[in-house]
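Hey there, shall we discuss this one?
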Amino acid sequence: MSKSIKALVALSFVAIVAACGGQQEEEVVIVEPVVADPVSSKF
């Protein structure tokens, strides 16, 4: 094969690997509001 075809195949391979490897799972963080417990002075 000629050098240009080899370069095109190599570039295509790198592009495919970068596209597939770039996908990461997003982490979902659920933040719950902090509620203070009611304080009583009975005890």
User: Anything to note?
Assistant: The longest helix spans residues 3-21.
